Protein backbone atom coordinates (compact mmCIF):
# COMPACT_ATOMS: atom_id res chain seq x y z
CA UNK A 1 0.00 0.00 0.00
CA UNK A 2 1.38 3.38 -1.00
CA UNK A 3 0.35 7.01 -0.93
CA UNK A 4 -2.34 8.10 -3.38
CA UNK A 5 -3.17 11.62 -4.47
CA UNK A 6 -6.80 12.42 -3.74
CA UNK A 7 -8.59 12.92 -7.10
CA UNK A 8 -11.30 15.48 -7.82
CA UNK A 9 -14.84 14.19 -8.16
CA UNK A 10 -16.14 14.07 -11.76
CA UNK A 11 -18.67 16.85 -12.29
CA UNK A 12 -21.21 14.32 -13.59
CA UNK A 13 -20.96 12.40 -10.32
CA UNK A 14 -21.39 15.55 -8.20
CA UNK A 15 -24.38 16.74 -10.23
CA UNK A 16 -26.09 13.36 -10.24
CA UNK A 17 -25.68 12.91 -6.49
CA UNK A 18 -27.49 16.21 -5.98
CA UNK A 19 -30.27 15.23 -8.39
CA UNK A 20 -30.56 11.75 -6.87
CA UNK A 21 -31.00 13.05 -3.33
CA UNK A 22 -33.47 15.74 -4.38
CA UNK A 23 -35.68 13.47 -6.48
CA UNK A 24 -35.65 10.33 -4.34
CA UNK A 25 -36.66 11.30 -0.78
CA UNK A 26 -36.78 7.65 0.28
CA UNK A 27 -33.11 7.24 -0.58
CA UNK A 28 -32.11 10.07 1.75
CA UNK A 29 -33.40 8.19 4.78
CA UNK A 30 -32.43 4.71 3.62
CA UNK A 31 -29.54 2.79 5.15
CA UNK A 32 -26.12 3.39 3.64
CA UNK A 33 -26.12 0.07 1.78
CA UNK A 34 -29.57 0.67 0.31
CA UNK A 35 -28.75 4.26 -0.62
CA UNK A 36 -25.57 3.17 -2.38
CA UNK A 37 -27.33 0.38 -4.27
CA UNK A 38 -30.12 2.73 -5.35
CA UNK A 39 -27.61 5.30 -6.60
CA UNK A 40 -25.48 2.73 -8.38
CA UNK A 41 -28.52 1.15 -10.07
CA UNK A 42 -30.17 4.39 -11.19
CA UNK A 43 -27.16 6.63 -11.90
CA UNK A 44 -25.04 4.26 -13.94
CA UNK A 45 -23.16 6.92 -15.89
CA UNK A 46 -22.20 8.84 -12.77
CA UNK A 47 -21.13 5.62 -11.04
CA UNK A 48 -19.03 4.59 -14.04
CA UNK A 49 -17.37 8.00 -14.26
CA UNK A 50 -16.51 7.86 -10.55
CA UNK A 51 -15.05 4.37 -10.92
CA UNK A 52 -13.05 5.34 -14.00
CA UNK A 53 -11.64 8.45 -12.28
CA UNK A 54 -10.46 6.34 -9.36
CA UNK A 55 -8.95 3.72 -11.64
CA UNK A 56 -7.02 6.34 -13.62
CA UNK A 57 -5.79 7.97 -10.41
CA UNK A 58 -4.58 4.61 -9.06
CA UNK A 59 -3.02 3.53 -12.37
CA UNK A 60 -5.33 0.53 -12.45
CA UNK A 61 -4.07 -0.91 -9.15
CA UNK A 62 -5.99 -1.88 -6.01
CA UNK A 63 -5.60 0.92 -3.46
CA UNK A 64 -4.65 -1.57 -0.76
CA UNK A 65 -2.86 -4.67 -2.10
CA UNK A 66 -1.70 -3.14 -5.42
CA UNK A 67 -2.75 -6.00 -7.68
CA UNK A 68 -3.81 -5.09 -11.21
CA UNK A 69 -7.57 -4.57 -11.33
CA UNK A 70 -9.77 -6.12 -14.00
CA UNK A 71 -13.35 -5.68 -15.12
CA UNK A 72 -14.45 -8.62 -12.98
CA UNK A 73 -12.23 -7.80 -10.04
CA UNK A 74 -12.82 -4.18 -9.03
CA UNK A 75 -15.26 -2.30 -6.84
CA UNK A 76 -15.59 1.08 -5.19
CA UNK A 77 -14.50 0.86 -1.57
CA UNK A 78 -15.84 3.18 1.12
CA UNK A 79 -12.93 3.85 3.49
CA UNK A 80 -15.33 5.08 6.16
CA UNK A 81 -18.13 2.49 6.13
CA UNK A 82 -21.45 3.50 4.58
CA UNK A 83 -23.14 2.57 7.85
CA UNK A 84 -21.21 5.24 9.74
CA UNK A 85 -23.01 8.04 7.87
CA UNK A 86 -24.85 10.58 10.02
CA UNK A 87 -27.25 13.43 9.41
CA UNK A 88 -24.22 15.71 9.36
CA UNK A 89 -22.11 13.68 6.91
CA UNK A 90 -23.07 11.13 4.29
CA UNK A 91 -20.03 8.90 3.76
CA UNK A 92 -22.04 6.81 1.30
CA UNK A 93 -21.99 9.36 -1.53
CA UNK A 94 -18.87 11.31 -0.56
CA UNK A 95 -16.38 10.90 -3.42
CA UNK A 96 -13.47 11.81 -1.14
CA UNK A 97 -14.29 8.64 0.83
CA UNK A 98 -13.90 6.41 -2.24
CA UNK A 99 -11.04 4.13 -3.26
CA UNK A 100 -11.01 1.51 -5.99
CA UNK A 101 -10.15 -1.95 -4.74
CA UNK A 102 -10.08 -5.57 -5.78
CA UNK A 103 -12.62 -8.01 -4.41
CA UNK A 104 -10.10 -9.32 -1.91
CA UNK A 105 -10.10 -12.91 -3.13
CA UNK A 106 -13.84 -13.35 -2.57
CA UNK A 107 -14.40 -14.03 -6.27
CA UNK A 108 -12.28 -17.20 -5.96
CA UNK A 109 -12.79 -20.33 -3.92
CA UNK A 110 -10.88 -20.20 -0.67
CA UNK A 111 -11.03 -19.71 3.06
CA UNK A 112 -11.97 -16.34 4.53
CA UNK A 113 -8.53 -16.28 6.12
CA UNK A 114 -7.22 -15.67 2.59
CA UNK A 115 -9.37 -12.59 2.02
CA UNK A 116 -7.92 -9.10 1.92
CA UNK A 117 -8.49 -5.41 1.29
CA UNK A 118 -11.97 -3.92 1.66
CA UNK A 119 -13.57 -7.34 1.92
CA UNK A 120 -11.37 -8.15 4.90
CA UNK A 121 -11.84 -4.72 6.49
CA UNK A 122 -15.60 -4.95 6.15
CA UNK A 123 -17.49 -2.40 8.20
CA UNK A 124 -14.66 -1.76 10.67
CA UNK A 125 -14.34 1.91 11.60
CA UNK A 126 -10.81 2.65 10.35
CA UNK A 127 -9.89 5.49 12.72
CA UNK A 128 -8.09 3.21 15.18
CA UNK A 129 -7.14 0.31 12.94
CA UNK A 130 -6.38 1.31 9.36
CA UNK A 131 -4.33 3.99 7.59
CA UNK A 132 -5.88 5.79 4.64
CA UNK A 133 -3.81 5.58 1.41
CA UNK A 134 -4.62 9.25 0.79
CA UNK A 135 -2.86 10.20 4.04
CA UNK A 136 0.35 8.16 3.79
CA UNK A 137 3.81 9.74 3.43
CA UNK A 138 5.66 9.64 0.12
CA UNK A 139 7.99 6.90 1.34
CA UNK A 140 6.93 3.35 2.35
CA UNK A 141 6.09 2.53 5.95
CA UNK A 142 6.90 -1.12 5.33
CA UNK A 143 9.80 -3.42 4.52
CA UNK A 144 9.87 -6.82 2.84
CA UNK A 145 10.19 -9.91 5.05
CA UNK A 146 10.67 -13.52 4.02
CA UNK A 147 8.03 -15.74 5.62
CA UNK A 148 6.97 -19.36 5.33
CA UNK A 149 4.15 -18.17 3.06
CA UNK A 150 6.33 -16.10 0.72
CA UNK A 151 7.16 -12.39 0.88
CA UNK A 152 5.32 -10.47 3.61
CA UNK A 153 5.18 -6.78 4.46
CA UNK A 154 6.65 -5.81 7.83
CA UNK A 155 6.46 -2.47 9.62
CA UNK A 156 9.45 -0.16 9.19
CA UNK A 157 9.55 1.48 12.62
CA UNK A 158 12.04 4.14 11.60
CA UNK A 159 9.89 5.17 8.62
CA UNK A 160 6.86 5.33 10.91
CA UNK A 161 8.79 7.49 13.37
CA UNK A 162 9.79 9.93 10.61
CA UNK A 163 6.19 10.11 9.40
CA UNK A 164 4.78 10.63 12.89
CA UNK A 165 2.68 7.47 12.55
CA UNK A 166 2.47 4.92 15.35
CA UNK A 167 4.11 1.64 14.36
CA UNK A 168 1.24 -0.30 15.90
CA UNK A 169 -1.16 1.58 13.59
CA UNK A 170 0.89 0.48 10.58
CA UNK A 171 0.82 -3.11 11.85
CA UNK A 172 -2.91 -2.89 12.49
CA UNK A 173 -3.36 -1.74 8.88
CA UNK A 174 -1.61 -4.85 7.57
CA UNK A 175 -3.82 -7.01 9.80
CA UNK A 176 -7.08 -5.17 9.13
CA UNK A 177 -6.60 -5.40 5.36
CA UNK A 178 -5.17 -8.92 5.32
CA UNK A 179 -2.19 -7.74 3.29
CA UNK A 180 -0.08 -10.68 4.46
CA UNK A 181 -2.57 -13.39 3.58
CA UNK A 182 -1.14 -16.47 1.85
CA UNK A 183 -2.46 -15.46 -1.57
CA UNK A 184 -0.72 -12.07 -1.54
CA UNK A 185 2.53 -13.33 0.02
CA UNK A 186 2.83 -15.93 -2.72
CA UNK A 187 2.17 -13.37 -5.45
CA UNK A 188 4.76 -11.01 -3.95
CA UNK A 189 7.27 -13.84 -3.93
CA UNK A 190 6.66 -14.43 -7.65
CA UNK A 191 7.28 -10.71 -8.31
CA UNK A 192 10.39 -10.83 -6.13
CA UNK A 193 11.79 -13.77 -8.13
CA UNK A 194 11.29 -11.94 -11.45
CA UNK A 195 13.09 -8.90 -10.07
CA UNK A 196 15.86 -11.02 -8.62
CA UNK A 197 16.43 -12.67 -12.01
CA UNK A 198 16.51 -9.29 -13.76
CA UNK A 199 18.97 -7.90 -11.21
CA UNK A 200 21.22 -10.91 -11.77
CA UNK A 201 21.13 -10.26 -15.51
CA UNK A 202 21.98 -6.60 -14.93
CA UNK A 203 24.95 -7.58 -12.78
CA UNK A 204 26.27 -9.75 -15.62
CA UNK A 205 26.74 -6.62 -17.73
CA UNK A 206 29.89 -4.50 -17.76
CA UNK A 207 30.04 -2.27 -14.68
CA UNK A 208 29.50 0.89 -16.72
CA UNK A 209 26.15 -0.43 -18.00
CA UNK A 210 24.78 -1.81 -14.74
CA UNK A 211 23.40 1.40 -13.26
CA UNK A 212 21.76 2.37 -16.56
CA UNK A 213 20.07 -1.02 -16.71
CA UNK A 214 18.85 -0.73 -13.12
CA UNK A 215 17.60 2.79 -13.79
CA UNK A 216 15.65 1.54 -16.80
CA UNK A 217 14.11 -1.22 -14.68
CA UNK A 218 13.06 1.30 -12.04
CA UNK A 219 11.46 3.60 -14.60
CA UNK A 220 9.61 0.69 -16.23
CA UNK A 221 8.20 -0.61 -12.95
CA UNK A 222 7.69 2.56 -10.93
CA UNK A 223 6.73 5.38 -13.30
CA UNK A 224 3.80 4.98 -13.43
CA UNK A 225 3.37 2.42 -10.65
CA UNK A 226 2.84 -1.17 -11.77
CA UNK A 227 1.41 -4.19 -9.95
CA UNK A 228 2.86 -4.70 -6.44
CA UNK A 229 4.48 -1.28 -6.67
CA UNK A 230 5.66 -1.20 -3.03
CA UNK A 231 7.34 -4.61 -3.35
CA UNK A 232 9.21 -3.44 -6.46
CA UNK A 233 10.11 -0.10 -4.90
CA UNK A 234 11.54 -1.68 -1.75
CA UNK A 235 13.43 -4.33 -3.70
CA UNK A 236 14.98 -1.90 -6.17
CA UNK A 237 15.88 0.57 -3.40
CA UNK A 238 18.57 -1.86 -2.28
CA UNK A 239 20.33 -1.42 -5.61
CA UNK A 240 19.55 2.24 -6.30
CA UNK A 241 19.70 4.19 -3.01
CA UNK A 242 18.01 7.20 -4.61
CA UNK A 243 15.06 5.13 -5.82
CA UNK A 244 12.70 6.47 -3.16
CA UNK A 245 13.43 10.04 -4.23
CA UNK A 246 12.99 9.14 -7.88
CA UNK A 247 9.62 7.51 -7.24
CA UNK A 248 8.17 10.80 -5.96
CA UNK A 249 8.60 12.54 -9.32
Report on the architecture of this protein.
The protein is mainly α and 249 residues long. Among the domains are: 1-105, no CATH class; 184-247, no CATH class. The protein has eleven helices and four strands. The protein has helices at 11-23, 25-29, 32-42, 44-57, 117-121, 157-163, 167-177, 182-203, 207-222, 229-237, 243-247, and strands spanning 75-78, 98-101, 142-147, 150-155. The strands form two sheets. It has a two-stranded antiparallel ribbon with strand order 1-2. The protein has a two-stranded antiparallel ribbon with strand order 3-4. Strand 3 and strand 4 (150-155) form a beta hairpin. Helix 8 (182-203) packs antiparallel against helix 9 (207-222) and helix 8 (182-203) runs parallel beside helix 10. The longest helix has 22 residues, at 182-203. The protein is elongated. The chain starts with 10 loop residues before the first helix and ends with a helix. 32% of the residues are buried.
Task: Please tell me the overall pLDDT.
Answer: 92
- Helices and strands, in N-to-C order? HHHHEEHEEHHHHHH
Give the helix/strand class: mainly alpha
Largest sheet: 2 strands, antiparallel
Count of individual beta strands: 4
Distance between the termini: 18 Å
* Unreliably modeled segments: none
Indicate the radius of gyration in whole angstroms: 20 Å
Q: How are the secondary structure elements laid out?
A:
Layout (H helix, E strand, L loop, with lengths): L10 H13 L1 H5 L2 H11 L1 H14 L17 E4 L19 E4 L15 H5 L20 E6 L2 E6 L1 H7 L3 H11 L4 H22 L3 H16 L6 H9 L5 H5 L2
Amino acid sequence: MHRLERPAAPQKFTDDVTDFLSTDPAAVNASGNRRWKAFRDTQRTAYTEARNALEANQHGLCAYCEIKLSENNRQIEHFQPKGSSTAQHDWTLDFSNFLLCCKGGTNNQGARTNHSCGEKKGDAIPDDCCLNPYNLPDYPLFTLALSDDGIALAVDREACRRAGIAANMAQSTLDCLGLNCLRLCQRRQAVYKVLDDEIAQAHSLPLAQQKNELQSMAEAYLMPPSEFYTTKLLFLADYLPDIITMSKK
